[in-house]
Amino acid sequence: MSIVRQSLLVAGKDLRIEARSRVALNQVVPFGIIVLVLFAFALDPDRGLLPRVAPGLFWVAVLLAGLLATSRSFTVENDNGVRDALRLSGLDGAALFCGKALAVAAQLLVLEVILGFGVVVLYDLEPHHPLVLGVTALAATAGLAAAGTVYGALAAGLRVRETLFPLLVLPVVAPVMLGGTRAFEAALEGTPGEAWPWVQLLGVFAVIYITMGWLAFGALLEES
């Protein structure tokens, strides 16, 4: 069986679990929306501050909600013995990584669409240069999904994984927060040319962690 097919099987398994449990729909998405609403109340909209800080607030909401989604995908496997089944399945470690990262990325993209709509409504934004926004979102999502999957596997076997996982991931994904925020700011301010260097940063980050996961995920799964 090819690595592509193995990856799709793993991704399909994770997405079916989420579709049946509806955790993403009932908990992760509402959590992200609540974060946006709290920021809207905390910052004074009359001073025009919300539109200026909207890109950063958007990515903060995506990251916090994404941590819940990523942690959930590994917790389910630990609680139900699926982790041991994956070890014994004979599936390639790179395929396991790609499948889990694809599932996380799919959930993040859905979350970003919903939260993006929420930002437009709550913060009174007018989206400009959708191509820049879309490419930025794809590059940032790939980086977040890859890094989250690598560190999720690293922390999954630990008893304190619920608290350790955010501590491991948050410092690592700082380039994603910076690049995504700056690229969105440039697009919304009508200067898309300034966004592309940040998109390149996001692309480099994604390539690094995709390569790391491809090479090391099998060993991390065995050791955790």
Alpha carbon gyration radius? 18 Å
Please give the count of helices.
9
Shape: globular
* Mean pLDDT over all positions: 83
Number of domains: 1
Protein model, in words:
The chain has 224 residues and is an all-alpha fold. The chain has one domain. Helix content is 84%, strand content 0%. The chain has 9 helices and no strands. The chain has helices at residues 3-21, 23-42, 49-79, 82-88, 93-122, 130-156, 161-172, 174-188, 196-223. α5 crosses α6 and α5 (93-122) packs across α9. The longest helix is centred in the first third of the chain and has 31 residues, at 49-79. It is globular, with a radius of gyration of 18 Å. It starts with a helix and ends with a helix. The mean pLDDT is 83.
Which key terms come to mind for this protein?
224 residues, 0% strand, 9 helices, mainly alpha, 84% helix
